[in-house]
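Appendix B. One record, verbatim.
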Amino acid sequence: MTEKIFKNAKWITPEKKTEPDVRKGAGYLRKILILESVPENALLFATAHGLYEISVNGKAVTNARLTPGCTEYNDRLMYQQYDIADLLKEGENEIFVTLGDGWYRGCIGIDGTRNFFGEDISFICEAIDGVGKELFVTDESWEGSGQGPILLTDLELGENYDARLEDIQEWSPVRTLDFDMENLVPQDAPYILEHEIFEGKLIKTSAGEDVYDFSQNLAGYTEIMIENAVAGQTITLIHGETLDENGNFTIANFQPGDRNKAGGIKQEINYICKDGRNEFKPHFSIFGFRYAKIVTDIPLQNISIRSIAVYSDMRETADFECSDEAVNKLFKNSKWSMKSNFCDIPTDCPTRERAGWTGDAGVFVKTGSYLMDCEGVYRNWLSSVRFNQHSDGKMAYISPRNGVPGRIAEMFSASVGWGDASVIVPYFLYKKSGDVSILSENYEMMKAWVGFLEKRAGKSKLKNRFGKNPYRKFIIDTGMDYGEWCEPGTDVMKTLAAAFRDGQPEVATAYFSYSSRLLSEIACTLGKTNDAGYYRDLSDKARDAYRYLVLKDGHIHSERQCEYVRPLAFGLLGEDEEKNAAEDLNRLVIDNGYHLNTGFLSTPFLCEVLAKHGYVDTAYKLLLQRTYPSWLYSVEKGATTIWETWDGIREDGTVHDSLNHYSYGAISGWLISGVLGINYAHDAVIIEPFPSKQLSFAKGYFDSPKGMIRVEWKYNDNDCSFHIEIPDGVTAKIRIHGMEETAVCGGKYDYTISLGN
C-alpha cells in the first residue's frame, strides 16, 4: 500500500545543507496547484521527518497536534490520511506546510540530545482523487523557505515566534532527499489532540513575579491573546509545575543538571507581537506545567492566557467517588498524570525526560486500561519496544530511543520489572480486549525476553553460593536490576551499588517465574501447546527456586514490605506460606504506623494483596493515610497529579523531582477492582467489592468493551447495601462477603448484608 501511495512522491526539505549543530527554526513548504474542476473526492497522504502542520487555501487540514508523533523513525513511521475535497477550489490552490524539529532532530531525553534521528526536517505527501488519479505529490516543483515567524521550535526548549514575519517573502527551490520508504505504515494510533482548557489566574509571588496559575498540572501549552499590541512588544512565558518553599516560581525541580547538552529544560515561549490583536499557541512544543511566569512590556490588562491539555485521543472509561474527598482527588490525580504522559506513547514525565520507560508502562497497564481507552497508545509504543530489543533478548529500558546507549544502558537493559513489560503489557491489554493479535504480534519478543532470563538464571558470580541444590540454575543473582525503585528510606545509589556486587535475586527470580507463567498462558491462547508446557514448567521451577531462596521455616524474613507483596501478587508461595506472608506483611504495615515503604514495582499490589488475604482494615488505613509516605500525602500538599517520589514536596516546602509521574497512581486500579470490586477480563467478569466502614460509601463504573458496569455500596447503621449493574449479554460472578457466590446475567441487582451489632 505504501509503495502504491508514494510511488511518485519524493522527500523534500526547505533547507539548504548546513552544519548539523546549527540551530534552525521551522521550515516552510508550498505548492501552487491549478485545478480546472474540484474532484468529488480527494485524499491526501502525508508524513514527515520531524513534525508537520498542513493547510489548503489557508484552512487547516487537521486539528491533530505533534503529527506524526514519537517513533523509531528508521524502523516505523506512520503516515496520515486526510479528506481534502472540501478545501479545494477551481483555479489556484495553495498547499502550505510548516515543519518543526520534534522528536526527529530536536532536544530529546534527559541529555537534551539533538539530531538523534537526522539533521534535516523533511516532508512527503501525495494527493489522489476518488479513482486514484494523482492530484499532486511532493517533488522539485515545490518551494521552500526558512525565513518565517517560528525562530525556534523545540519540545524541551520551547518556541520563539515573531509575528512580524508571518508574511513569508523569500522562497527557494526545495532540496530532495533519498529515504527508504519500507518503514512507512498507515496511522494506527490515536491522534494527539487538544482537550481540557483552564483559564489562568494572575498572582504576584513574594519575589514580585507575575505568574499565572491554571489550577491543574498538565501536559500541553499556553494560548496567549493580546489586545492593542504594538509591533515589537514581547512576551516571555516560562512554564513550571510548582512554586518553591518561599512561594516563588521555579523550574528547578525537573532540571537534569549539567548532563543536559541544551542547558536545561526551559519550557519557554518567546513571542514578538505584530500590530493589533495577537493570538498564539505553540505549533510544535508541549510543556509540563501548572504555572507560567510572564515577563512582558505589554500592560497585563491587555493579555489573557489559558492552558490547554494536549494528549492522545483516549476516552475516559472509569470513574470513582467515595465519602473521602482526598481519595476522590487521588483518583482524579491519577487520571491527570495518565493524560499528561500518554502523548502518542506512555512516558515517565512531561518535563525532564519525556521517555517511554518500560518499567512505568508495565506497572501501570492494568490500571491504565481501566481508566482510559489506551490500547492504541500502548500498541503504538510496543512497536518501538520490539524494534529496540537486543539480539540476545535484553530489552531497551526506553523506547523509542532518545539518546545513544552507553555501557550503563546496556547493563540495565537486563533489568527485570522493566524488561518484563514486554510480556506484562501485551498480556493485560489482551485480558481487557480479547484481541489475540496483541499477543501474536509481540510473541517473539516475549519469548526472547524470557529466554534471556533463562540464560541469566543460575550463572552466579559467587561460586557455590547456593550449593549443589537443584534450584541453583533457576535463581538469578547476576546482572543489573533497578529493583524496587524509589523505595522510601533507601539510598538509590547504595542500592544499585549493592545490586552490581551481589545482584537482586529476590526480585529477579520472582519476575523470571511470573513472566514465564504469563508466557505459558499466552502460548496456550495462541495454540502453541508445546511452548505452553515448556514455559509452565520453567515457571514452576523458578517458583520452587524462589521459595528456596526467600523462605525459612515457612516465613519470609525481611523488613521490606515489597518482599512480601511481590510473591503474594505473583502467586509464588504455597497456601500456608501465603497465609504467613500476608500475616507478616500486615504486621509490618501496622508496625510502620500504617505507612507504606514500597517502590515502583510492588506498590500497585499492596492494598490488593492485603485485602484479598483478609486484612481489609489495614488496606484501608494505608489508603487513607495522610502523612509521608502515603498516597494522600501529596493530596494534602495540594497535588493535582501523581508525583515521581513520595515526598516531591517535603514538609518544609522544598520541591524535588517530577510532580507528574503516573506510576504510583496505579492504586486507582485497586479503587476500581478492589474497593468497588469490578474485575473485568474479556472472558470473565467478577464483582468482588471490599467495603470498609472507614468510608461510608463508594461508587463508580467501568465502561468496559462489553458495556457499562456500575457498583455502589454504602453503610446504613449495621447494614451494608450494594447496587450492581451488569450490561446486557454479560454474565458475571458476584462475590459479596457474607453471601453465597452467585452468577447473574445483564441487569440491575441490589443486596443488603447485615453486619450485626
